Amino acid sequence: MATFEEIEYAFFFVSSEACGMNRALLCRDNGEIYYHSEIDDLNELDEENFDCDNFLEIPHKNDLGLGIGLALEFAQLRMPEETAQVDRIFQSPGAYGRFKELLSCKGLLQSWYDFENQREHEALREWCRENGIRAEMGSERMLMLLDGWDGPEHITDGLFRYSKCISWIRLYIQVEGSEFYGGVSGTDDDFELVKAEGCWMRYSCHPAWTSAGEPKLILRGYSTWEAVYERMPEGARVQEKLASIEDLAAFLERSIG
Questions:
Q1: What is the distance, to the nearest Å, from the Cα of residue 171 to the centroid of all Cα atoms in its chain?
Q2: Which pLDDT value is given to residue 10?
Q3: 81 has a pLDDT exceeding 80
Q4: Cα 172 to Cα 152: distance, rounded to the nearest angstrom
Q5: 3 state DSSP class of 111
Q6: Pairing, β 229-237 against β 199-207
Q7: Domain boundaries in the chain?
Q8: Is-contact 187 224, C-beta < 8 A?
Q9: Contact 179, 171 (CB under 8 A)
């Protein structure tokens, strides 16, 4: 089967033009991806090259709800005062160019690229799962930077962490593959947010203790010791939509005022 990077490349190829101009088909039988373009002299879907009856069409970003709606969502999250203007921008041709000009003026252009890449990555991963595609990562996942946060720090194989300290309070986000979770420690109400069965749950956490009455510690790397926290079994459902690492970071920051 094709790797996730190969499927993602095909997705970007399809999405680089208007719907229907570029196509990519994934053959389930041999795992190969075949390309066709109405713009360039590229046609791997002719009878000579393409002999597959069991295939999937790689989606366009609009098929996954990643078009105008994504831009409006970003505006609501990062510059809510400009939401009405962004809505007007997308009422006429050339909208993306004007949208990026607005983002550049606000100093949010790179944040938009990171947000867009993260959402596309997550949506394509979900598309793979829905279609029964076990697409493995051919290389380590590229993680974005978070403003005001340290990391991503490589903790162990496949595990990365972001962290942010405010006085004695510590916020953290851990990422493993396409999954991520986070929490807060150093307060009177430490907690951890975990996604379970499609819903985000908030669990209270407390420092773990040994039978000798000493705090449990874990060694990270060669010289860094960290306290171990235990998550309480009962959690409360979180109503907010936390679809990206950025969303989770913003939620954790808001939670401590």
A1: 19
A2: 92
A3: yes
A4: 10
A5: helix
A6: antiparallel
A7: 1-139, 150-255
A8: no
A9: no
